[in-house]
Amino acid sequence: MSELLLVGRVARAHGNKGQVIVNPDTDFPADRFAEGNVLVVEQAGQQVERRIASVRFQQGRPIIALDGIETMDDAEALAGAELKLPATELGPLPAQTYYRHDLVGCEVRTTDGTIVGKVDRVEGTLERSLLVVASQRGEVMVPMIEGIVVTLDVQGREIVINPPGGLLEL
Predict the structure, then answer these.
(1) CA distance readout (Å), 2 to 17, 33, 87, 120, 128
(2) Strand locations in the chain (E)
(3) How many domains does the chain have?
């Protein structure tokens, strides 16, 4: 199986028919949690593929029913489970858009060559993404906006930034 990527986590059961509320970990929840999609449900080291039988959104979060999860007890047992998709199923992105997993691990340096650290994770929405960079001085939050992110080379695993005064000292 190809690399599995996290797209959400089960928050809790919803109702008494086996539905669960998902905390999405994707900028494309409508695509990732569409009816008929097959997710890998990972919990306690076990992985089980389950098809999404139905989905609806409430306050931006998907409420899904998965094949084989029929009761409230079944759904409650999934609390905390990670929902993943094979990387090969994600498809291409628009220009200047990146998957979070492609950015994690990239080295971040300033335009003068100073190494800031490595991207530990990406937070926020597609429109307001922040690179969380693990540096010698702790975490540094770098907004992914034009003017601050000068070059981004996913293949070369390098991001060059031009930080405004004080950004790296926060």
Answers:
(1) 32, 19, 6, 22, 29
(2) 4-14, 19-24, 38-43, 46-58, 61-66, 82-86, 107-110, 115-123, 130-135, 138-143, 149-153, 158-161
(3) 2
**Do 104 and 35 fall into the same domain?**
no
Burial class (CB in 10 A: 0-12, 13-18, 19+), 114: exposed
pLDDT tens track for 118-129: 999 988 877 788
Q: Which residue type, as a one-letter code, is found at position 120?
A: D
75-103 average pLDDT score = 86
pTM of the model: 0.70
Query: 152 pLDDT exceeds 70?
Result: yes
50 and 8, same structural domain?
yes
* CATH code (residue 42): 2.40.30.60
- Tracing tokens 């970990």 back to the chain, one arrives at 25
